[in-house]
Amino acid sequence: MPDFLLYALLAGLALALVAGPLGSFVVWRRMAYFGDTLSHSALLGVALGMLLDVNLTLAVTVGCVLIAVLLVALQHKEWLASDTLLGILAHGTLSLGLVVLALTENVRVDLMAYLFGDLLAMTRDDLYWILGGLLIVLVLMCVLWRRLLSITVHEELARVEGLPVTAIRLALMLLIAIVIAVAMKIVGVLLITSLLIIPPAAAQRHARTPEQMALGASVLGCAAVVGGLTMSWHLDTPAGPSIVVCAVLCFMLALSVPRRA
Fold first, then answer.
1. CATH fold for domain 3-190
2. Is 185 within 8 Å of 114 (Cβ atoms)?
3. pTM to 2 decimal places
4. DSSP string, 14-35
């Protein structure tokens, strides 16, 4: 197997394993639009990283984390409805990123790679960044799993029981921000949220427990990665969109299989 294909496969499988359980919380808590907002803001991180000449993955990670913190702070102010606020930040950060890139002199940027991913251009350093970031998210998610479930099932009851609901909610948003930042290289800023939503949505239909849904989402995500890379290799299609297409096929297959009684 060529090195670039091996790097792409390892990075894609690692993302799928982490995106499964994390995406389950996105589906349960109806945070899909929040994920879209963070993914759009990733392009602003790319632009600032190029402008300041720093590592792009680090710049995008810091940018997404700051946007997540800003969202939490603004939501507490209750000046605007959450969906309105998310819409403003999503389109505002994406447009600002494009403007900054246009004003950056002597820098050539392949926007298609950032918008839709360039998985087959993965390097060893990219792989290390992705695996490191996803490992941190996986460890933190295992530590916070029960608390995240508690605030998802009944937030008010969790608050009565003494859980720091606001801090746990912020931690979940930060975990999503990190995953989106490191996944940008794989499926691009416009398709990142699809891996956080489609496999968990497919697994939800047949899962009986939260753990079953999280595990099923990871398995379906891995199947989508393998299928998408196979399609890209044989049909010469873009790797990121091919993975999303395979994820949608997995979702349609899950819908067509009758649920167990």
1. ABC transporter involved in vitamin B12 uptake, BtuC (1.10.3470)
2. no
3. 0.85
4. HHHHHHHHHHHHHHHTT-HHHH
